[in-house]
Structures are given as C-alpha cells and as structure tokens.
Amino acid sequence: MMFTTAITVLDGLTRALVVSFATLRGEREEDVKAGSGRGYIFVLAGLCVAALLLVAFFMQGFRAFIDLVTSIAFLTAPVFAWLNHRTMMQPHVPEAHRPRGGILVWSYLSITVLGAFAFVYLWLLVS
Fold first, then answer.
1. What 8-state DSSP symbol labels residue 92?
2. Which three-class secondary structure state does DSSP give residue 50?
3. How far is CA 108 from CA 62, 75, 83, in A?
4. CA distance 50 to 4
5. At what angle do helices 62-88 and 38-58 cross, to 10 degrees?
6. How far apart are CA 7 and CA 13, in angstroms?
7. How far apart, in Å, do the first and last CA atoms of the chain sit?
8. CA 68 → CA 75, 88, 100, 111, distances in Å?
9. If we measure between CA atoms, which residue out of 35, 1, 2 comes closest to residue 19?
10. What global pTM score does this model have?
11. Which residues 6+ apart lie within 8 Å of 29 measured at CB?
12. How does DSSP classify residue 98?
C-alpha cells in the first residue's frame, strides 16, 4: 500500500514541478506536457536521487531526520508563499481572481512573518 502511495506522490510532485518551472520561465501552462519529456525525466530522477540520499544519510538517527525536515519546512515556507503570491499576480490570472484589498495585505504580511520566522530559526540554529 505504501509503495503505490509513494509512486503516486512522486509522479504528482514531478508533474507539478515541471509545470511550475515552465511557468516561471514564461511558458504557458497549456503548452507544457507535464507527464512526458526530458523535463519530466530530469525532475523525476532528481527527486529519486534526493530521496535515496535522505534515506541513506538520515535513517541512522531519526532525530537527525526530523531536524532536517523541520529545517526544510521553516526555510522553504516563505519561498513557497512568495511563489504562490507571484503566481496569483501573473497577467494570465484574470483580474477578478487576483487578490486585492485585505487579502493582498494579508499575503504580504504572511510572507513577511514567514520570512521573519525563517530568519529567527536560522539565527537560533547557528547561535
């Protein structure tokens, strides 16, 4: 049961990353073949290598693994928030669907707070 879940997540994440990278390069989402091509193979291989490295290096001690995952979560949260905000402000998103008013302020405030948490986390980690 876990094997099929892992394959599904790996495929879904790969497809999402291929479309995300293409969108950031300025390509239209409709023009991207998310489930095929060199980009799909490259991202899939990269994710597999990263997963194998994680298992190889961090299965000796579960605490080290949890520390790594916590660090990644704190440090990537502001990046993902900014990418999400940037995506919603793109010209291909209809004006009616873009955040405005209080939601726009909330978005900027949230990105700032997440960035502050990441900074404090790094500061506490190195001190």
1. T
2. helix
3. 35, 17, 12
4. 19
5. 150
6. 10
7. 43
8. 11, 30, 36, 22
9. 35
10. 0.62
11. 19, 22, 23, 92
12. S
Token code pair at residue 98: 């873009």
pLDDT in tens, 17-40: 888 888 787 777 666 777 777 888
Give the amino acid at 93: V
Residue tagged 């980690």 (tokens): 125
Residues of the chain with pLDDT under 50: none
The C-alpha atoms of residue 116 and residue 54 are separated, in whole angstroms, by: 27
Q: ∠ at Cα 86 (120, 90), nearest 5°? A: 175
- Residues in contact with 81: Cβ distance below 8 Å, sequence separation at least 6, in sequence order: 107, 110, 111, 114
